[in-house]
Amino acid sequence: MSSVEAPARGAVTPRLRAQRRKRLVAAVFVLPALLLLGALVLYPVIFSVGRSFFDASGDTFVGADNYTEMFRDPATLKAIRNSTIWVVVAPVLLTGLGLVLAVLTEKIRWATAFKLVLFLPMAVSFLAAGIIFRLAYEQDPERGVINAAVVGVHDSFSESSPYPNARSRDGETLVKDGEGYRGKDAAGPGDTVNLGFVGVPPGEMPGEAKPAADAAKSTAGQDELRGVVWLDFTPGGGGTAGEVDAKENGMPGMKVSAVRDGETVASTTTGDDGAYSFSGLDPGSYTVEVPASNFAAPYQGVSWLGPALITPAIIGAYLWIWTGFAMVLIAAGLAALPRETLEAARMDGANEFQIFRKITVPLLAPVLTVVFVTLVINVMKVFDLVYIIAPGPVQEDANVLATQMWLVSFGGGNDQGLGSALAVLLLALVVPAMIFNIRRFRRSES
């Protein structure tokens, strides 16, 4: 009777050799990745942690001084505040927009084309996107497309000032009164008061403007106070200051008021030849005034790149880039939802909003959480958009931790000890979110 002898202890069996060979092959393939990971990730992290305990020169050990200085520096505290705004606002808005758009795309035709259009900004680099929005946010409506639209809408509902640069010749017919002007002398019914202005290039006069000479020669009636408002400038030279010459045009659209004892008793608007007239005035003395509204500077839009709005403006650019990303991920989760559950709810009488709130959102909670946490990690590291969009004078008002770290280390501060401390702080804030996301992935796979 034959018997199979057990292998001696320490003997190498074919199975064991195969396992060792597999481990060796795996190690050969993994080793380059491990070397790159160590050189590009692990070593910089260890070096930054160590460097954060030294001074700017790197020669003197200062312990935790850089960390205490970090929380005493007003610029760093502002960067921490801005980073908090980013973390609270941007992921919430992106996740909400992505969810709404993902649900809506299921209800429309050409959903694929719609998703493609929204996802296209992801193909644009942050550098290019920053340049695009830097130009779009320019306050000059001639250059900034957003303010051009804002000014267009504003001017559709509110008239702009006709002559913002007009001014009176010093002390001739008009006297400065705040931001407006008033006639130098009092007048009453039967009088004529002509008001001359300069400062308006003839090429910028309204096209309907007509010569004012004939209107200036008209005589006022017994109960009428009249005159002309004209551009006291003769093209090509010549003419007499303070007098209405033949080639000088009236200023149409000017608002003129008759004021008595500090109260406006009549108002009118000049015609194409600059003529105005107040009829039916009671006897007495009046002052002719040209209100400040005629000279107010035209509306220039919103100061998107100013200190107050720079952070919301940059977040808006970030939303433009990442909304498609959030929508596509959430749409993938939405496509995997059990349709029979949604149909059962409809058959039970639930409307679309109730289905969305009580069924769709709870079932999508794992996907929404992953998208939200991924965006949190991303906004903590945002750098390009802030650095490019924010102009130099308001850079500090827009700074986040990543830009502050760069500015302190290389952008003029030259304090790599404090910069390394900021890098460690940023790492400490990002790591918990990364761990949470990894655990979510592992739980979803099991």
UniProtKB/TrEMBL annotation:
Domain ABC transmembrane type-1 as annotated: residue spans: 80-437
BP-aspect Gene Ontology terms: transmembrane transport
Topology with respect to the bilayer: Multi-pass membrane protein
Lipid biosynthesis found in the keyword field: no
Assigned keywords, A-Z: Cell membrane, Membrane, Transmembrane, Transmembrane helix, Transport
One family name in Pfam for this protein: BPD_transp_1
Full protein name: ABC transporter permease subunit
